[in-house]
Amino acid sequence: MPNMALLSPRVVLALLVRPDLWIQAMRSAASLAPKGWWRTSPFLPIPDSEWMRFRLETAYGGDGTGPVNPKDMVTFLEWQKAL
Fold it and tell me: What is the pTM assigned to this prediction?
């Protein structure tokens, strides 16, 4: 089962109120999607669960299963957009 931390209701809500980041969020999602994502269930461009666990562990510590902080996601997307 893929890690759905990026799609938590708090993260989605934080992005819904920031339409200026919607395009950047789609670009980021596309860059994180594994090749051929449409061939396997759940047929969504979700990053590999082991990679996602590793990224959450390096960002927040612990075992990598914690939630993504919505403020961190907004900050990250603002940073990417500014590049």
Answer: 0.79
